[in-house]
């Protein structure tokens, strides 16, 4: 038997009677809810039942009854019962002792017939351990906020958490450097899908910077359609279109490209970037004012 009950309560307070028993998996326990506790004590709501698996073939059953009283006095609570249905078909009766409940009223000052004031909360001196705990929590909070602030700045500036700020490099320089790393790594020999993913992302980022339209969420067909309005040589446009098509086949259609196709994709990307950069220089030169007049 398990019992959870404070022996003394004030009028109107509620207390919980807790009864528990351990049974086998094939057994069933039914706690009987009494229709009446005892004169002066009332049952609040319906009893609850919780089941806990202890491991093996055992279960822990726990039933809780909430009681209250609105009359002061001492109450001998009746014994609660439960039926244990054995696996073989037998039924046993279990009895749980509940003890005595003391219900008290608020004390009255007989000289003034006023209730005694509640005693104030006892205050204990603050210890060094408590101070260190608050200091530690505060320091951890400050450090967390600091690193969160640095992380947000890093994302916004697209740089490392502890690196110094540097001037942004031209898009063609960044793209050509990344293509060179891709060529040296020969990733297509191990993972063609990852190779074409990196290759396509390098081109997408460059095109986005060079031609000022979003590419990272666009399909290859949408990107090529946007490039039709740019001054790109037809033959180069055809090669770039073939590169994007091959990339999509490998990434989405499980196509296995020949190693030569993978290697030939890099020069196409480099040629496109160099050509578009030269075209950009010429466009900027044409926009300069004519100083010969």
Specify the oligomeric state: single chain
Distance between the termini: 108 Å
Helical residues, percent: 40-55%
SSE string: EEEEEEEEEEEHHHHHH
Number of domains: 3
Quantity of strands, as a count: 11
Task: Report what the structure shows.
The protein has 293 residues and is of the alpha+beta class. The protein folds into 3 domains: 8-115, Immunoglobulin-like, CATH 2.60.40; 126-166, no CATH class; 171-285, Four Helix Bundle (Hemerythrin (Met), subunit A) (Up-down Bundle). It has helices spanning 128-157, 171-185, 192-211, 220-227, 234-252, 259-287; strands at 8-10, 14-24, 28-31, 41-55, 58-69, 73-76, 80-85, 91-96, 100-104, 108-109, 114-115. The protein starts with 7 loop residues before the first strand and ends in a 6-residue tail after the last helix.
Short account of what is shown:
The protein is an alpha+beta fold and 293 residues long. The protein contains six helices and eleven strands. The protein folds into three domains: 8-115, Immunoglobulin-like (Sandwich), CATH 2.60.40; 126-166, no CATH class; 171-285, Four Helix Bundle (Hemerythrin (Met), subunit A) (Up-down Bundle).
Keywords:
elongated, 3-stranded mixed sheet, 41% helix, Immunoglobulin-like, 293 residues, Four Helix Bundle (Hemerythrin (Met), subunit A), 24% strand
